Amino acid sequence: MCLAIPGKLIEIREENGLKMGTVDISGALTKACLEYVPEIAIGQYTIVHAGFALKIIDEEEAAESLKLWDELMRAQRDG
Fold it and tell me: Could you identify which of 7, 28, 33, 74 might form a hypothetical disulfide with 23, taking C-beta atoms 3.0 to 4.6 angstroms apart as the criterion?
């Protein structure tokens, strides 16, 4: 099963000829390859899996997904 989590793009740069970025995922900053979403802009949300931004999503979709992640984490902790 693949799990991907949404985050907000806060920086874009080039590394070794690849479009890369820094994504804020609930306060944790992570590096992601942006080659699959070349049109992404700072401030937009994306789904990140295994260090790759896979698609651009809107803020509402990101908020709903993060809410579900939070519920899952709480259920695991309390379960």
Answer: 7
Distance CA(27)–CA(2), nearest Å, equals: 22
pTM of the full structure: 0.84
CA 64-77-71 angle, 5° bins: 15
Q: What is the 3-state secondary structure (H, E, C) of 13-64?
A: EEECCEEEEEEEECCEEEEEECCCCCCCCCCCEEEEECCEEEEEECHHHHHH
How confident is the prediction for the chain on average, in pLDDT?
Answer: 92
From residue 65, give the alpha-carbon distance in Å to each of 5, 15, 62: 8, 29, 5
